[in-house]
Design brief:
- By secondary structure, this protein is mainly α.
- The protein has a domain at 7-55.
- It has 4 helices and no strands.
- The chain has helices spanning 10-23, 27-53, 66-75, 78-82.
- Helix 1 (10-23) packs across helix 2.
């Protein structure tokens, strides 16, 4: 862990102080949590979404041959409509 120093205005510091007392944690922990949520949750959220999406068609019974269905979509006129 590395140490850093921040300058906070009185209003922000007061808000953090109250929140830290309510949560039973330190201001430093609140700042670390906020930075983590702001700058790393996007990556974690995308990873979670991809995990949820992976294999979404594996249990479909309405498609006897999913590969043939997908090839048909790729060869269809869908791309022409997008242009």
């Amino acid at each position: 862990m590395r140490r850093t120093q921040l300058y906070l205005d009185d209003e922000l510091w007061g808000t953090l102080r109250i929140r830290s007392q309510q949560a039973g944690t330190s201001i430093s922990d609140l700042v670390r949590q906020a930075v983590r949520e702001k700058y790393t949750s996007g990556i974690a959220g995308r990873q979670q979404s991809m995990r949820a999406f992976a294999g979404i068609w594996k249990d479909r019974t309405d498609l006897s041959e999913p590969e043939i269905y997908l090839r048909g979509l790729r060869k269809g006129s869908r791309l022409k409509r997008m242009r």
